[in-house]
Amino acid sequence: MGIFSFTKNKKENLDKGLAKTKESVFSKLSRAVVGKSKVDDEVLDNLEEVLITSDVGVDTTLKIIERIEERVSKDKYLGVSELNVILKEEIAALLEENNSTDVSDFELPDRPEPYVIMVVGVNGVGKTTTIGKLAHKFKAAGKNVYLGAADTFRAAAIDQLQIWADRVDVPLVKQKMGSDPASVAYDTLQSAKSNGADVVIIDTAGRLHNKINLMNELSKIKNVMQKVYPGAPDEVLLILDGSTGQNAFEQAKQFTKATEVTALALTKLDGTAKGGVVIGISDQFKIPVKYIGIGEGIEDLQIFNRTEFVDSLFS
C-alpha cells in the first residue's frame, strides 16, 4: 500500500487517534536527549527506557536499540536531531518483517465462496464493536455480509451483535444463549452459502481462564465450518485492547497457544499513551496487525498501514 493511497482524512484521524501516545513518547524522547548533541551510550540507554516505558516491550526494544547501535557504529557523528528519522526507519523496517501483506483497503479475494473470518478475543476488548465496524466497512465496499453470534456464553454478546447487525443492516444468524457455538457457526455458513454472501464474520466466546475449553471450542467451531467450506476459516482475527499495554501481550500469548491466529486488530488506541504496544505485539508474535481502532465512530477502524503508523508517532 503506497503512502499516497492513504487519504488525508484517514491520516488526520490516525494522527488524532495516536496523539496521546505521540505526546508521551515525544516528551520522554526530549528528556532522553537533553543536553546531548550526538547519539552516545547514554542516549541509547535513555532511548531504551523510553521504548520500554512506551509499552514496546523489552525484547522488541532491544532489537530496535541493536539496529540503532549498528548505525551509530558506522556513523560516529550521528546527531540526536537525526534520532527521530532513524527510529522511524528502524521501526518501520521491523514492522515490515511481520506485516509484509499490507492490504490497501477492505478488499477480499475474488472467488465464488465467501471469505470467512473467525473473531477471537476476551470480553471487553471491543470485539463486538470491531465486528460491527468491519461489517460496515465491507458493506460500504459493496459486499454481502453475514454475521454469526457463536459467543453463546453471554446473552449480552448476542444482543450487542444484534444491535450492530441492525445498525449496519446485515443479517445475523443466532440461537439462544447456551446453544452449541459450533452449531451457530454451521448455520451461519449454510445461510451465507445459500444467500451468496461475500464475507462471513463469526464471533466466538473469549473465556481465557479455561484454556483447554477454549482450545476445544475453537477447534470444534473450525471443524464444523469446514464441513460447509473445506478451507474455513480464511482468517482468525484476534482482537486486543491496546490500552491494556502489557496485558495485551499476555492475551496474545494465551490465544496464540489456543488457536492459530492469522491477523490482529488493536483497539482503543485513541484513549491511551500505550500505542507502542502495536510495535511490540507485531514483532513478538510474528502475526500481522491488520486493523487498528482509533476512536468510537463507525469509521474509526482503519487498515493498519505501518508507514503511516510510524510516521504519526515519530514525526
Describe the structure.
The chain is an alpha/beta fold and 315 residues long. The protein has 2 domains: 3-98, Up-down Bundle (Four Helix Bundle (Hemerythrin (Met), subunit A)); 115-305, P-loop containing nucleotide triphosphate hydrolases (Rossmann fold, 3-Layer(aba) Sandwich). The chain has 12 helices and 8 strands. The protein has helices at 8-17, 19-32, 41-53, 58-74, 83-98, 127-140, 155-168, 181-194, 211-228, 246-258, 277-285, 306-314; strands spanning 115-120, 145-150, 172-173, 199-204, 235-241, 263-267, 289-293, 301-303. Strands 3-2-4-1-5-6-7-8 form an 8-stranded mixed β-sheet, with helices on both faces. A hairpin with a 7-residue loop joins β7 and β8. α6 (127-140) runs parallel beside α7, α8 packs parallel to α9 (211-228) and α9 crosses α10. The model is unreliable at 1-5 (pLDDT under 50). Residues 288-301 form the SRP54-type proteins GTP-binding domain. Part of the signal recognition particle protein translocation system, which is composed of SRP and FtsY. It is found in: Cell membrane; Cytoplasm. Its main location: membrane.
